[in-house]
Amino acid sequence: MANETRASYTDTFGHAFDAKGRITVPSEWRAESYEARLFVLPSSDKCVRVYPESWLGRLQEKAALLKSADPMRAKLEELASLAQGTTWDQQGRIMVKEKLRHGAGLKKESVLVGRLDHFQIWDKAVWEAKQTVPTTVEEALGAMGL
C-alpha cells in the first residue's frame, strides 16, 4: 500500500461570520494539498464539523458494502441528509447554512479548530469557556500509549 499524503487541519484561528453566513477558511487550509470541496455537519459538541470530500467518499464506500435494510446504512444515509456541501469563494470563505449555525449556537465571532482530518467551527465564547490547560505533545502521546 502506497503512503498516502493527506493535508492535516492543525492550529486554531479566530474569524467572524458575515451577514450572509460566510466565514473565512484560513489560507493554510486552502493550500494546494487541501481539498476545495468540503462538507459541513452538525455535531453534538455544540459546534459544526467540516470534513473534506474524501472523508465522505470513504463513508460512501462503507455504505455500498451494506444491505439497504442494514441499520448502519440507514444512519449513514441520515448523516448524508444533514451534510451541507460547500467550496470556498474567491475570498476564501465558505457559507454555513443558518440551520447548522443555529443548531451549534454559532454567532458572529467564531473559532476554527484543526482536528487533523477535519476542522470544527465553534462560537468564540463557548470555545473559550471550555478551554483548560493546554495539552503538550508528551501528554497527548502518553494518553495514546506512545
Structure description:
With 146 residues, the protein is of the alpha+beta class. It has 5 helices and 8 strands; from the N terminus they run ββββααββαββαα. A hairpin with a 5-residue loop joins strand 3 (37-42) and strand 4 (48-52). The mean pLDDT is 91.
CATH T-level fold name? Chemotaxis protein chec
CATH superfamily: Transcriptional regulator MraZ domain
Are there runs of 5+ residues with pLDDT below 50, and where?
none
**Main sheet: strands, sense, barrel:** 6 strands, antiparallel
SSE class? alpha+beta
Overall CATH class: Alpha Beta
Radius of gyration: 17 Å
Q: How many separate helices?
A: 5
Oligomeric assembly: single chain
Total domains: 1
Concise overview:
With 146 residues, the chain is an alpha+beta fold. The chain has helices spanning 53-64, 71-82, 98-104, 124-130, 137-143, and strands spanning 12-16, 22-24, 37-42, 48-52, 84-87, 93-95, 109-114, 119-123. It has a single domain (12-143), classed as Chemotaxis protein chec (3-Layer(aba) Sandwich).
Keywords:
single chain, 146 residues, alpha+beta, Chemotaxis protein chec, six-stranded antiparallel β-sheet, two-stranded antiparallel ribbon, 5 helices
